[in-house]
Specification:
Elements: E1 2-8, E2 13-19, H1 35-38, E3 40-45, H2 53-63, H3 67-72, H4 79-94, H5 102-113, E4 117-123, E5 126-131, H6 132-136, H7 143-155, H8 158-168
Parallel strand pairs: 3-4
Antiparallel strand pairs: 1-2, 4-5
Length: 169
């Protein structure tokens, strides 16, 4: 049994959930040996509730409006950066803040099909490896995807959007 907190993207709330898994405990271990290559996606990890380094780095790029640098992460060797850049670029496109070129759109599509995995965490007890395909598949609604969507909504809010659009004119 795992106690986990996650976000409800529909009403921007945090939900406490008890999840029962009938699987081998090994599945829920992160790959510490390959952490540099696979990275870590987490919005409130471990006992201190800190975001992972990849999340904090991407957040800085968002605040600095360095969207082209976010797009470069679509091809990153670090799969956590790939996941985060895909969902961020999609949100920026949706809000009219970024226009992806054909190559970027193809790379996003390739990442949706990718079996490359990254490590994920949520709270003190939820750690697992997940493929980009699992994380990005909206039908699956993976815990980390739901948290990422809420995280983006909070960072790319209406006030932020107006300020970016105003500066573009």
């Amino acid at each position: 049994m795992i106690l986990s907190t996650h976000s409800n993207a529909q009403n921007d709330s945090i939900v406490l959930e008890i999840i029962e898994y009938d699987v081998d405990a090994e599945e829920f271990q992160i790959d510490r040996e390959n952490m540099k290559a696979t990275g870590l996606v987490g919005f409130g990890c471990s006992y201190d509730g800190m975001s992972s380094d990849e999340v904090m780095s991407l957040e800085n790029l968002i605040w600095d409006k360095r969207f082209n640098e976010i797009a470069l992460l679509l091809n990153s060797k670090n799969t956590a950066n790939r996941f985060l850049s895909v969902i961020t670029i999609e949100k920026l496109i949706e809000e009219g803040l970024y226009s992806a070129n054909e190559s970027e759109l193809e790379t996003i599509e390739d990442n949706y099909k990718s079996n490359l995995y990254t490590n994920t965490c949520s709270g003190c007890t939820f750690f697992e490896k997940a493929s980009l395909q699992e994380l990005l598949n909206s039908d699956n609604e993976h815990l980390i995807r739901r948290q990422a969507i809420l995280w983006l909504k909070q960072r790319i809010n209406r006030k932020f959007i107006r300020s970016v659009k105003k500066n573009r004119k």
